[in-house]
Amino acid sequence: MTHEPVVSHEAEAGDEFETRLKVYEGQRAAVARLGKDPVNAPMIRHWCEAMGDSNPAYSGPDAIAPPTMLQAWTMSGLSGHTRGTHAYDELLGLLDEAGYTSVVATDCEQEYLRPLRPGDEITYDSVIESVSERKTTKLGTGYFVTTRMDIRVGPDLAGTHRFRILKYAPIRRAGREQPSQPDRRQKPARPRPVVSRDNAGFWKGVEQHRLLIQRCIGCGTLRHPWLPGCNACGGLDWDTVEASGEGTVYSYVVMHHPPFPAFDPPYAVGLIELAEGVRMLGNVLGVPYDKVRIGLPVRLEFQACDEELVLPFWRAHGAHEMREAGA
Ligand code: ZN
Question: Could you tell me if residue 55 is inside a domain?
Fold first, then answer.
């Protein structure tokens, strides 16, 4: 990877640009919004089940909500919020116009001041707390924008939620221009996998058409997805084994809705049980989406989705093989 050289006249203009961004510090990002639902026992129960949290404080007649649910009461869901304030939209618009078109959430911090209980009605405000100087990160150069949400029940501050995003101009790889063919413009690229320090080895393997399973050196347990430590023994040392590529459909869903621009629904997504015993998700090919069944034998196949992205897919084979419909 190479960094795009910063052109000097841009650097001078940069100071002026940063001054324009700083104007937004302290401005409101959301004013007097109402939580979509009051704090309620069903959402608390689902959360605790998903987290595997059986703390008795979160159930029964005197239940409180788990403090870390704070953001759940303010989230917009798929239907979205009413739009952000003019100031927040304007700030993001300025960054877009200047070429900082990508966004990634980087971190959040929460403070808890009062427990939330079923029946509590949430209101919240949000303020643009800070806009950083221009920073260069591994993703690209851009600006960190921190918003602080104050969550209230009546007049009481129940907690604060600080949320930081990086608006950045992605680093373009050497020799790879932005796609310009009309068909590429019409169909957005398939979303990229999120590659982290923990799973980088997996994606490196995929690039080389090898499906690598992590193996604990301490106890030999195989694991997927990749994690820093072993859930069986806590060991931190690991190596990998290459998957044979044989598997069966352990479970599946057929995606109809919501439509994502890079995909053509309906299509089947399988939870594949590998011959080695671990499970992973992937598209099931080689049979019509409505003929995918639990237990269907599948075989690994690597496909290039575009010039930068290779993904593992699972193709039905053997007696179940059928002519593919469409996909
Ligand atoms: Zn282990």
Answer: yes
